[in-house]
Amino acid sequence: MKYLSFYVLVIPNLILFILILLSGFLVKNKVNKQKNSLSIIDQLNHYSKLSGINTGYKLLVSLLLLIFCLLNGNIQVSILVIFITTFITVYFGKIDLSQYLKLFIIPFSFLILSCIAILLNFGTHLPTEVLASIKLWSFYIFVTDSSLLNSCTVFFRVLACISSLYFLIVNTPVDKILACLKHYHFPNVLIELMFLIYRFIFFLWEISIDMVTAAKLRFGFDSYPKTIKSIGMIGSNIFIVSFKKAQKFYNSMESRLYNGSLNFIFTESKVTPVEVGLFIFGICYFSFLYYSFQ
Amino acid sequence: MDILEIKDLTFSYGNEAVLKNVNLKLKKGEKLVILGANGSGKSTLFLIMNGVLKPDSGQIILDNSPVKLNKKGLRLLREHIGIVFQEAESQIIASTVFNEISFGLTNLGLSVDEVIKRTEETLDKLNIQNLRERAPHFLSGGEQKKVTIADIIAMKPEIVIFDEPTTSLDPIGVNNLKKILEDLSNESKTLVISTHLVNFAWEWADRIAVLNDGFIQKVGTPEQIFSDDELLYSAHLEKPILFELEDFLITKGLIKRGSYSRTVSELEEKLNLTLK
Question: Are residues A135 and A198 in the same domain?
Fold first, then answer.
Protein backbone atom coordinates (compact mmCIF):
# COMPACT_ATOMS: atom_id res chain seq x y z
CA MET A 1 0.00 0.00 0.00
CA LYS A 2 2.73 2.40 0.90
CA TYR A 3 4.44 2.08 -2.48
CA LEU A 4 1.27 3.22 -4.15
CA SER A 5 1.86 6.74 -2.95
CA PHE A 6 5.37 6.72 -4.30
CA TYR A 7 4.17 6.14 -7.84
CA VAL A 8 1.32 8.53 -7.53
CA LEU A 9 3.79 11.24 -6.66
CA VAL A 10 4.64 11.24 -10.33
CA ILE A 11 1.08 12.03 -11.36
CA PRO A 12 1.14 15.75 -10.51
CA ASN A 13 3.69 16.33 -13.20
CA LEU A 14 1.26 14.99 -15.75
CA ILE A 15 -1.15 17.66 -14.64
CA LEU A 16 1.62 20.17 -14.69
CA PHE A 17 2.70 19.12 -18.13
CA ILE A 18 -0.74 19.85 -19.51
CA LEU A 19 -0.79 23.14 -17.62
CA ILE A 20 2.51 24.16 -19.13
CA LEU A 21 1.45 23.25 -22.64
CA LEU A 22 -1.67 25.33 -22.25
CA SER A 23 0.12 28.29 -20.78
CA GLY A 24 2.91 28.25 -23.35
CA PHE A 25 2.20 31.82 -24.32
CA LEU A 26 1.66 33.03 -20.78
CA VAL A 27 4.95 31.58 -19.58
CA LYS A 28 6.80 33.51 -22.24
CA ASN A 29 6.24 36.83 -20.53
CA LYS A 30 4.93 36.28 -17.06
CA VAL A 31 7.24 33.81 -15.39
CA ASN A 32 7.50 35.46 -11.99
CA LYS A 33 3.84 36.31 -11.68
CA GLN A 34 2.92 32.71 -12.41
CA LYS A 35 5.26 31.50 -9.73
CA ASN A 36 3.59 33.69 -7.17
CA SER A 37 0.09 32.70 -8.06
CA LEU A 38 0.53 29.04 -7.20
CA SER A 39 3.11 28.79 -4.47
CA ILE A 40 1.55 31.66 -2.61
CA ILE A 41 -1.33 29.52 -1.31
CA ASP A 42 1.05 27.74 0.98
CA GLN A 43 2.24 31.04 2.40
CA LEU A 44 -1.13 32.75 2.62
CA ASN A 45 -2.84 30.11 4.69
CA HIS A 46 -0.27 30.51 7.44
CA TYR A 47 -0.71 34.24 7.65
CA SER A 48 -4.48 34.25 7.47
CA LYS A 49 -6.02 35.60 10.65
CA LEU A 50 -8.72 32.95 10.30
CA SER A 51 -6.29 30.02 10.43
CA GLY A 52 -6.86 29.72 14.18
CA ILE A 53 -10.57 28.96 13.84
CA ASN A 54 -11.61 25.35 14.35
CA THR A 55 -10.79 23.42 11.18
CA GLY A 56 -13.84 21.16 11.33
CA TYR A 57 -16.03 24.25 11.43
CA LYS A 58 -14.40 25.78 8.36
CA LEU A 59 -14.48 22.46 6.56
CA LEU A 60 -18.20 22.08 7.21
CA VAL A 61 -18.96 25.66 6.17
CA SER A 62 -17.04 25.38 2.94
CA LEU A 63 -18.55 21.96 2.12
CA LEU A 64 -22.09 23.22 2.71
CA LEU A 65 -21.36 26.31 0.64
CA LEU A 66 -19.99 24.09 -2.12
CA ILE A 67 -23.10 21.92 -2.15
CA PHE A 68 -25.28 25.02 -2.11
CA CYS A 69 -23.42 26.49 -5.08
CA LEU A 70 -23.80 23.26 -7.03
CA LEU A 71 -27.55 23.14 -6.39
CA ASN A 72 -28.14 26.80 -7.04
CA GLY A 73 -28.69 27.86 -10.64
CA ASN A 74 -29.11 31.57 -10.12
CA ILE A 75 -26.43 33.94 -11.31
CA GLN A 76 -27.10 36.67 -8.71
CA VAL A 77 -26.87 34.17 -5.86
CA SER A 78 -23.59 32.81 -7.24
CA ILE A 79 -22.16 36.32 -7.38
CA LEU A 80 -23.34 36.89 -3.81
CA VAL A 81 -21.48 33.78 -2.65
CA ILE A 82 -18.31 34.90 -4.44
CA PHE A 83 -18.63 38.30 -2.82
CA ILE A 84 -19.25 36.92 0.68
CA THR A 85 -16.34 34.45 0.65
CA THR A 86 -13.98 37.04 -0.82
CA PHE A 87 -15.10 39.59 1.76
CA ILE A 88 -14.57 37.20 4.68
CA THR A 89 -11.15 36.12 3.41
CA VAL A 90 -9.92 39.60 2.63
CA TYR A 91 -11.50 41.54 5.51
CA PHE A 92 -11.41 39.08 8.41
CA GLY A 93 -8.53 36.91 7.17
CA LYS A 94 -6.45 40.00 6.29
CA ILE A 95 -5.36 38.44 3.01
CA ASP A 96 -4.19 40.86 0.34
CA LEU A 97 -6.96 41.21 -2.25
CA SER A 98 -4.65 41.23 -5.27
CA GLN A 99 -2.92 38.07 -4.06
CA TYR A 100 -6.28 36.41 -3.48
CA LEU A 101 -7.46 37.33 -6.97
CA LYS A 102 -4.26 36.01 -8.51
CA LEU A 103 -5.25 32.57 -7.27
CA PHE A 104 -8.14 32.66 -9.71
CA ILE A 105 -5.93 33.03 -12.78
CA ILE A 106 -5.35 29.32 -13.38
CA PRO A 107 -8.92 28.02 -12.83
CA PHE A 108 -10.16 31.08 -14.70
CA SER A 109 -8.28 30.15 -17.88
CA PHE A 110 -9.75 26.65 -17.84
CA LEU A 111 -13.18 28.04 -17.12
CA ILE A 112 -13.13 30.49 -20.02
CA LEU A 113 -12.26 27.69 -22.44
CA SER A 114 -15.10 25.47 -21.29
CA CYS A 115 -17.61 28.32 -21.27
CA ILE A 116 -16.72 29.16 -24.87
CA ALA A 117 -17.43 25.54 -25.74
CA ILE A 118 -20.87 25.80 -24.13
CA LEU A 119 -21.57 29.16 -25.70
CA LEU A 120 -21.03 28.15 -29.32
CA ASN A 121 -23.37 25.88 -31.23
CA PHE A 122 -22.79 24.25 -34.61
CA GLY A 123 -25.36 23.30 -37.19
CA THR A 124 -26.43 23.49 -40.82
CA HIS A 125 -29.63 25.40 -40.01
CA LEU A 126 -30.13 28.46 -37.82
CA PRO A 127 -32.74 28.15 -35.04
CA THR A 128 -35.22 31.00 -34.55
CA GLU A 129 -33.95 32.61 -31.30
CA VAL A 130 -30.38 33.07 -32.51
CA LEU A 131 -28.36 36.01 -31.14
CA ALA A 132 -25.35 35.99 -33.44
CA SER A 133 -24.05 33.71 -36.13
CA ILE A 134 -21.19 33.19 -38.54
CA LYS A 135 -21.57 31.23 -41.74
CA LEU A 136 -18.67 28.97 -42.67
CA TRP A 137 -19.24 27.30 -46.04
CA SER A 138 -22.35 25.23 -45.53
CA PHE A 139 -22.68 25.32 -41.75
CA TYR A 140 -23.16 27.90 -39.04
CA ILE A 141 -21.51 28.70 -35.76
CA PHE A 142 -24.08 30.49 -33.63
CA VAL A 143 -24.98 31.71 -30.17
CA THR A 144 -28.51 31.40 -28.82
CA ASP A 145 -30.29 32.97 -25.86
CA SER A 146 -30.26 29.73 -23.94
CA SER A 147 -26.61 28.93 -24.68
CA LEU A 148 -25.58 32.40 -23.53
CA LEU A 149 -27.58 32.03 -20.32
CA ASN A 150 -26.24 28.50 -19.85
CA SER A 151 -22.60 29.46 -20.20
CA CYS A 152 -23.03 32.47 -17.89
CA THR A 153 -24.72 30.29 -15.27
CA VAL A 154 -21.97 27.69 -15.51
CA PHE A 155 -19.32 30.38 -15.37
CA PHE A 156 -20.59 31.95 -12.16
CA ARG A 157 -21.55 28.65 -10.60
CA VAL A 158 -18.03 27.32 -11.08
CA LEU A 159 -16.50 30.55 -9.79
CA ALA A 160 -18.73 30.37 -6.72
CA CYS A 161 -17.69 26.75 -6.11
CA ILE A 162 -14.02 27.64 -6.48
CA SER A 163 -14.35 30.61 -4.15
CA SER A 164 -16.08 28.55 -1.49
CA LEU A 165 -13.25 26.02 -1.65
CA TYR A 166 -10.66 28.81 -1.63
CA PHE A 167 -12.35 30.07 1.52
CA LEU A 168 -11.17 26.84 3.16
CA ILE A 169 -7.78 26.52 1.45
CA VAL A 170 -6.60 30.09 1.86
CA ASN A 171 -7.58 30.25 5.51
CA THR A 172 -6.35 26.83 6.67
CA PRO A 173 -2.91 25.21 6.45
CA VAL A 174 -3.27 22.00 4.50
CA ASP A 175 -2.02 19.69 7.21
CA LYS A 176 -4.66 21.02 9.57
CA ILE A 177 -7.31 20.06 7.04
CA LEU A 178 -5.80 16.61 6.71
CA ALA A 179 -5.50 16.15 10.48
CA CYS A 180 -9.16 17.08 10.72
CA LEU A 181 -10.14 14.60 7.99
CA LYS A 182 -8.13 11.97 9.79
CA HIS A 183 -9.95 12.76 13.00
CA TYR A 184 -13.21 11.98 11.23
CA HIS A 185 -11.86 8.66 9.96
CA PHE A 186 -11.23 9.61 6.37
CA PRO A 187 -9.24 6.72 4.74
CA ASN A 188 -5.51 6.93 5.47
CA VAL A 189 -4.42 6.20 1.92
CA LEU A 190 -6.38 9.12 0.53
CA ILE A 191 -5.02 11.50 3.15
CA GLU A 192 -1.49 10.39 2.37
CA LEU A 193 -2.05 10.84 -1.35
CA MET A 194 -3.59 14.26 -0.88
CA PHE A 195 -0.72 15.42 1.22
CA LEU A 196 2.07 14.14 -1.00
CA ILE A 197 0.43 15.37 -4.18
CA TYR A 198 -0.10 18.78 -2.60
CA ARG A 199 3.57 18.97 -1.62
CA PHE A 200 4.71 17.84 -5.03
CA ILE A 201 2.59 20.20 -7.05
CA PHE A 202 4.34 23.13 -5.41
CA PHE A 203 7.70 21.54 -5.75
CA LEU A 204 7.27 20.65 -9.42
CA TRP A 205 5.87 24.04 -10.16
CA GLU A 206 8.91 25.77 -8.74
CA ILE A 207 11.29 23.40 -10.50
CA SER A 208 9.55 24.01 -13.81
CA ILE A 209 9.77 27.78 -13.31
CA ASP A 210 13.50 27.47 -12.69
CA MET A 211 13.88 25.35 -15.80
CA VAL A 212 11.90 27.85 -17.85
CA THR A 213 14.10 30.67 -16.59
CA ALA A 214 17.24 28.70 -17.37
CA ALA A 215 15.94 27.94 -20.86
CA LYS A 216 14.99 31.56 -21.38
CA LEU A 217 18.49 32.66 -20.53
CA ARG A 218 19.74 30.38 -23.28
CA PHE A 219 17.27 31.86 -25.80
CA GLY A 220 14.94 28.84 -25.72
CA PHE A 221 11.84 31.03 -25.93
CA ASP A 222 12.81 33.30 -28.80
CA SER A 223 10.23 32.09 -31.28
CA TYR A 224 7.08 30.03 -31.08
CA PRO A 225 8.64 26.80 -32.49
CA LYS A 226 11.53 27.18 -30.06
CA THR A 227 9.07 27.77 -27.22
CA ILE A 228 7.18 24.58 -27.97
CA LYS A 229 10.41 22.61 -28.28
CA SER A 230 11.77 23.99 -25.01
CA ILE A 231 8.52 23.29 -23.21
CA GLY A 232 8.58 19.72 -24.49
CA MET A 233 12.12 19.25 -23.25
CA ILE A 234 11.29 20.79 -19.89
CA GLY A 235 8.25 18.56 -19.61
CA SER A 236 10.24 15.38 -20.12
CA ASN A 237 12.89 16.69 -17.76
CA ILE A 238 10.31 17.25 -15.07
CA PHE A 239 9.36 13.59 -15.33
CA ILE A 240 12.89 12.52 -14.54
CA VAL A 241 13.41 15.11 -11.83
CA SER A 242 10.14 14.33 -10.13
CA PHE A 243 10.95 10.64 -10.14
CA LYS A 244 14.34 11.23 -8.56
CA LYS A 245 12.88 13.70 -6.11
CA ALA A 246 10.12 11.29 -5.13
CA GLN A 247 12.78 8.70 -4.41
CA LYS A 248 14.76 11.06 -2.18
CA PHE A 249 11.68 12.30 -0.41
CA TYR A 250 10.57 8.78 0.26
CA ASN A 251 14.01 7.75 1.53
CA SER A 252 14.02 10.54 4.05
CA MET A 253 10.55 9.62 5.24
CA GLU A 254 11.44 5.96 5.52
CA SER A 255 14.52 6.70 7.56
CA ARG A 256 12.26 8.50 10.01
CA LEU A 257 10.16 5.38 10.51
CA TYR A 258 7.34 6.34 8.18
CA ASN A 259 4.89 3.48 7.98
CA GLY A 260 2.13 4.70 5.72
CA SER A 261 0.19 6.96 8.04
CA LEU A 262 0.82 10.66 8.51
CA ASN A 263 0.41 11.86 12.05
CA PHE A 264 0.55 15.54 12.75
CA ILE A 265 -0.30 17.11 16.03
CA PHE A 266 -2.58 20.09 16.34
CA THR A 267 -4.26 21.88 19.12
CA GLU A 268 -7.67 22.79 17.78
CA SER A 269 -9.54 25.76 19.18
CA LYS A 270 -13.13 25.26 20.29
CA VAL A 271 -16.04 26.61 18.26
CA THR A 272 -17.25 29.80 19.89
CA PRO A 273 -20.96 30.65 20.43
CA VAL A 274 -20.61 33.52 17.95
CA GLU A 275 -19.45 31.09 15.28
CA VAL A 276 -22.34 28.73 16.02
CA GLY A 277 -24.72 31.69 15.75
CA LEU A 278 -23.20 32.77 12.43
CA PHE A 279 -23.46 29.20 11.17
CA ILE A 280 -27.17 28.92 11.99
CA PHE A 281 -27.80 32.37 10.52
CA GLY A 282 -25.91 31.36 7.37
CA ILE A 283 -27.94 28.18 6.95
CA CYS A 284 -31.23 30.09 7.34
CA TYR A 285 -30.08 32.85 5.00
CA PHE A 286 -28.91 30.52 2.23
CA SER A 287 -31.94 28.26 2.42
CA PHE A 288 -34.10 31.37 2.17
CA LEU A 289 -32.12 32.45 -0.90
CA TYR A 290 -32.38 28.99 -2.39
CA TYR A 291 -36.15 28.77 -2.09
CA SER A 292 -36.91 32.33 -3.09
CA PHE A 293 -34.85 32.14 -6.28
CA GLN A 294 -36.07 28.74 -7.45
CA MET B 1 33.64 0.01 22.16
CA ASP B 2 32.21 -0.42 18.70
CA ILE B 3 28.67 0.80 18.48
CA LEU B 4 28.21 -0.10 14.83
CA GLU B 5 30.13 -2.32 12.49
CA ILE B 6 29.72 -2.70 8.77
CA LYS B 7 31.09 -5.92 7.39
CA ASP B 8 31.86 -6.86 3.78
CA LEU B 9 29.13 -4.64 2.43
CA THR B 10 28.49 -4.63 -1.31
CA PHE B 11 25.82 -2.80 -3.21
CA SER B 12 25.07 -2.11 -6.85
CA TYR B 13 22.51 -0.22 -8.85
CA GLY B 14 21.84 -2.68 -11.65
CA ASN B 15 25.20 -3.61 -13.10
CA GLU B 16 27.00 -0.65 -11.67
CA ALA B 17 28.73 -1.59 -8.43
CA VAL B 18 28.57 1.37 -6.05
CA LEU B 19 29.99 -0.17 -2.89
CA LYS B 20 32.59 -2.90 -3.11
CA ASN B 21 33.34 -4.70 0.12
CA VAL B 22 33.04 -1.88 2.62
CA ASN B 23 34.26 -2.51 6.16
CA LEU B 24 33.86 0.15 8.79
CA LYS B 25 33.65 0.34 12.57
CA LEU B 26 32.13 3.19 14.55
CA LYS B 27 33.31 3.79 18.10
CA LYS B 28 30.87 5.13 20.65
CA GLY B 29 31.00 8.90 21.00
CA GLU B 30 33.53 9.50 18.24
CA LYS B 31 33.48 12.06 15.47
CA LEU B 32 34.05 10.29 12.18
CA VAL B 33 34.41 11.98 8.83
CA ILE B 34 33.85 10.00 5.68
CA LEU B 35 35.92 11.72 3.07
CA GLY B 36 35.35 11.05 -0.58
CA ALA B 37 35.02 12.79 -3.91
CA ASN B 38 31.61 13.17 -5.57
CA GLY B 39 30.16 9.84 -6.61
CA SER B 40 32.31 7.76 -4.31
CA GLY B 41 29.27 6.15 -2.69
CA LYS B 42 28.90 8.13 0.54
CA SER B 43 25.19 8.74 0.31
CA THR B 44 24.52 5.16 -0.72
CA LEU B 45 26.47 3.89 2.27
CA PHE B 46 24.37 6.03 4.60
CA LEU B 47 21.11 4.86 3.12
CA ILE B 48 22.22 1.28 3.67
CA MET B 49 23.27 2.01 7.24
CA ASN B 50 19.76 3.29 7.82
CA GLY B 51 18.11 0.32 6.15
CA VAL B 52 16.55 2.37 3.37
CA LEU B 53 18.51 0.45 0.73
CA LYS B 54 19.11 -3.27 1.04
CA PRO B 55 22.74 -4.33 0.47
CA ASP B 56 23.52 -7.13 -1.99
CA SER B 57 25.63 -8.80 0.65
CA GLY B 58 27.23 -7.95 3.96
CA GLN B 59 26.23 -7.36 7.52
CA ILE B 60 25.38 -4.46 9.76
CA ILE B 61 26.26 -5.15 13.38
CA LEU B 62 24.67 -2.90 15.98
CA ASP B 63 25.94 -3.20 19.57
CA ASN B 64 27.65 -6.50 18.77
CA SER B 65 24.54 -8.19 17.41
CA PRO B 66 23.91 -8.53 13.67
CA VAL B 67 20.80 -6.73 12.46
CA LYS B 68 18.38 -8.74 10.36
CA LEU B 69 16.83 -6.55 7.71
CA ASN B 70 13.24 -7.44 8.50
CA LYS B 71 10.63 -5.05 9.83
CA LYS B 72 11.82 -5.26 13.40
CA GLY B 73 15.48 -4.93 12.45
CA LEU B 74 14.80 -1.91 10.26
CA ARG B 75 12.98 -0.19 13.07
CA LEU B 76 15.88 -0.92 15.39
CA LEU B 77 18.35 0.55 12.89
CA ARG B 78 16.29 3.66 12.31
CA GLU B 79 15.76 4.25 16.01
CA HIS B 80 19.49 4.09 16.61
CA ILE B 81 20.71 5.89 13.51
CA GLY B 82 19.36 9.16 12.16
CA ILE B 83 20.32 10.79 8.87
CA VAL B 84 20.28 14.50 8.15
CA PHE B 85 19.92 14.54 4.39
CA GLN B 86 21.99 16.67 2.09
CA GLU B 87 19.13 18.63 0.58
CA ALA B 88 16.82 20.04 3.20
CA GLU B 89 14.12 20.37 0.55
CA SER B 90 13.84 16.63 0.12
CA GLN B 91 13.62 16.02 3.85
CA ILE B 92 11.09 18.64 4.84
CA ILE B 93 7.57 17.30 4.70
CA ALA B 94 5.26 19.22 7.02
CA SER B 95 4.04 22.76 6.55
CA THR B 96 5.03 24.14 9.93
CA VAL B 97 8.35 23.75 11.69
CA PHE B 98 6.63 22.35 14.76
CA ASN B 99 4.95 19.61 12.76
CA GLU B 100 8.09 18.92 10.81
CA ILE B 101 9.97 18.13 13.99
CA SER B 102 7.14 16.04 15.38
CA PHE B 103 6.89 13.92 12.21
CA GLY B 104 9.51 11.35 13.22
CA LEU B 105 8.36 11.40 16.84
CA THR B 106 4.78 10.48 16.04
CA ASN B 107 6.11 7.73 13.78
CA LEU B 108 8.03 6.40 16.76
CA GLY B 109 4.65 5.81 18.35
CA LEU B 110 5.15 8.14 21.30
CA SER B 111 2.20 9.62 23.17
CA VAL B 112 1.02 13.08 22.15
CA ASP B 113 2.27 14.68 25.37
CA GLU B 114 5.69 13.13 24.94
CA VAL B 115 5.85 14.26 21.30
CA ILE B 116 5.01 17.84 22.25
CA LYS B 117 7.49 17.77 25.12
CA ARG B 118 10.33 16.49 22.96
CA THR B 119 9.53 18.88 20.12
CA GLU B 120 9.62 21.83 22.53
CA GLU B 121 12.90 20.56 23.96
CA THR B 122 14.43 20.35 20.53
CA LEU B 123 13.16 23.80 19.54
CA ASP B 124 14.82 25.21 22.67
CA LYS B 125 18.00 23.27 22.15
CA LEU B 126 18.58 24.56 18.63
CA ASN B 127 17.27 27.99 19.55
CA ILE B 128 14.56 28.03 16.88
CA GLN B 129 11.50 28.70 19.05
CA ASN B 130 10.86 31.80 16.91
CA LEU B 131 10.40 29.63 13.80
CA ARG B 132 7.90 27.20 15.28
CA GLU B 133 4.82 28.29 13.32
CA ARG B 134 6.67 29.25 10.13
CA ALA B 135 6.43 27.27 6.90
CA PRO B 136 9.75 25.43 6.52
CA HIS B 137 9.76 25.71 2.74
CA PHE B 138 10.09 29.48 3.00
CA LEU B 139 12.94 29.58 5.49
CA SER B 140 16.50 30.49 4.54
CA GLY B 141 18.99 27.74 3.78
CA GLY B 142 20.66 27.93 7.17
CA GLU B 143 17.36 27.86 9.02
CA GLN B 144 16.17 24.93 6.94
CA LYS B 145 19.33 23.04 7.84
CA LYS B 146 18.66 23.69 11.52
CA VAL B 147 15.12 22.39 11.15
CA THR B 148 16.27 19.21 9.42
CA ILE B 149 18.85 18.66 12.16
CA ALA B 150 16.13 19.23 14.76
CA ASP B 151 14.02 16.58 12.99
CA ILE B 152 16.63 13.99 13.64
CA ILE B 153 17.87 15.08 17.07
CA ALA B 154 14.31 15.03 18.41
CA MET B 155 14.22 11.28 17.77
CA LYS B 156 17.29 10.90 20.01
CA PRO B 157 19.31 8.48 17.92
CA GLU B 158 22.67 7.34 19.26
CA ILE B 159 24.36 7.82 15.91
CA VAL B 160 23.66 10.93 13.85
CA ILE B 161 24.76 10.94 10.22
CA PHE B 162 25.13 14.21 8.32
CA ASP B 163 25.25 13.84 4.56
CA GLU B 164 27.30 16.75 3.21
CA PRO B 165 25.95 19.23 5.79
CA THR B 166 28.10 22.15 4.68
CA THR B 167 26.80 22.39 1.14
CA SER B 168 24.43 25.32 0.66
CA LEU B 169 25.48 26.90 3.96
CA ASP B 170 27.11 30.31 4.23
CA PRO B 171 30.04 30.86 6.63
CA ILE B 172 27.70 31.82 9.49
CA GLY B 173 25.63 28.73 8.78
CA VAL B 174 28.76 26.57 8.92
CA ASN B 175 29.73 28.14 12.26
CA ASN B 176 26.26 27.45 13.66
CA LEU B 177 26.54 23.90 12.42
CA LYS B 178 29.89 23.50 14.16
CA LYS B 179 28.34 24.68 17.43
CA ILE B 180 25.48 22.21 17.11
CA LEU B 181 27.94 19.42 16.37
CA GLU B 182 29.98 20.42 19.41
CA ASP B 183 26.89 20.21 21.64
CA LEU B 184 25.91 16.84 20.24
CA SER B 185 29.41 15.56 20.73
CA ASN B 186 29.31 16.68 24.37
CA GLU B 187 26.19 14.55 24.81
CA SER B 188 28.42 11.64 23.72
CA LYS B 189 26.49 11.00 20.54
CA THR B 190 28.36 9.28 17.76
CA LEU B 191 28.60 11.64 14.81
CA VAL B 192 29.33 10.74 11.21
CA ILE B 193 29.78 13.41 8.58
CA SER B 194 30.37 12.94 4.91
CA THR B 195 32.14 15.72 3.12
CA HIS B 196 34.76 16.49 0.55
CA LEU B 197 35.96 19.58 2.41
CA VAL B 198 39.35 18.57 3.77
CA ASN B 199 39.71 21.70 5.90
CA PHE B 200 36.49 20.96 7.74
CA ALA B 201 37.52 17.34 8.23
CA TRP B 202 40.92 18.37 9.56
CA GLU B 203 39.47 20.70 12.15
CA TRP B 204 36.67 18.50 13.35
CA ALA B 205 37.35 14.80 12.97
CA ASP B 206 38.56 12.26 15.52
CA ARG B 207 38.97 9.72 12.76
CA ILE B 208 38.69 9.86 9.01
CA ALA B 209 37.65 7.12 6.63
CA VAL B 210 38.54 7.66 2.99
CA LEU B 211 35.96 6.25 0.65
CA ASN B 212 37.14 5.96 -2.91
CA ASP B 213 35.32 4.35 -5.79
CA GLY B 214 33.17 2.19 -3.55
CA PHE B 215 35.58 0.89 -0.97
CA ILE B 216 37.14 2.20 2.22
CA GLN B 217 40.74 2.93 1.26
CA LYS B 218 42.03 3.85 4.68
CA VAL B 219 40.75 4.61 8.14
CA GLY B 220 42.85 6.56 10.60
CA THR B 221 43.48 9.74 12.52
CA PRO B 222 43.55 12.93 10.45
CA GLU B 223 47.36 13.05 10.76
CA GLN B 224 47.67 9.53 9.39
CA ILE B 225 45.35 10.24 6.50
CA PHE B 226 46.75 13.57 5.40
CA SER B 227 50.40 12.55 5.62
CA ASP B 228 49.74 9.73 3.16
CA ASP B 229 50.44 11.45 -0.16
CA GLU B 230 49.74 8.41 -2.28
CA LEU B 231 46.33 7.91 -0.72
CA LEU B 232 45.38 11.55 -1.20
CA TYR B 233 46.40 11.43 -4.84
CA SER B 234 44.47 8.27 -5.65
CA ALA B 235 41.36 9.44 -3.76
CA HIS B 236 41.40 12.86 -5.50
CA LEU B 237 41.81 14.74 -2.23
CA GLU B 238 43.94 17.68 -1.20
CA LYS B 239 45.82 18.47 1.96
CA PRO B 240 44.22 20.85 4.45
CA ILE B 241 45.72 24.33 4.28
CA LEU B 242 46.65 24.36 7.98
CA PHE B 243 48.36 21.01 7.70
CA GLU B 244 50.42 22.08 4.72
CA LEU B 245 51.27 25.41 6.30
CA GLU B 246 52.45 23.78 9.50
CA ASP B 247 54.61 21.34 7.55
CA PHE B 248 56.17 24.29 5.76
CA LEU B 249 56.77 26.17 9.00
CA ILE B 250 58.42 23.09 10.48
CA THR B 251 60.81 22.69 7.54
CA LYS B 252 61.73 26.37 7.90
CA GLY B 253 62.46 25.72 11.56
CA LEU B 254 59.85 28.12 12.86
CA ILE B 255 57.90 25.53 14.84
CA LYS B 256 59.02 22.38 16.55
CA ARG B 257 57.57 19.12 15.34
CA GLY B 258 54.83 18.00 17.70
CA SER B 259 51.17 17.27 17.37
CA TYR B 260 49.63 19.24 14.52
CA SER B 261 47.39 22.17 15.28
CA ARG B 262 43.77 21.80 14.20
CA THR B 263 42.67 25.41 14.28
CA VAL B 264 44.18 28.72 13.30
CA SER B 265 44.31 29.89 16.91
CA GLU B 266 46.30 26.82 17.94
CA LEU B 267 48.85 27.54 15.25
CA GLU B 268 49.00 31.18 16.33
CA GLU B 269 49.85 30.18 19.87
CA LYS B 270 52.67 27.98 18.67
CA LEU B 271 54.07 30.75 16.50
CA ASN B 272 53.80 33.23 19.34
CA LEU B 273 55.84 30.91 21.53
CA THR B 274 58.70 30.75 19.03
CA LEU B 275 58.57 34.42 18.16
CA LYS B 276 58.90 35.54 21.78
Answer: no
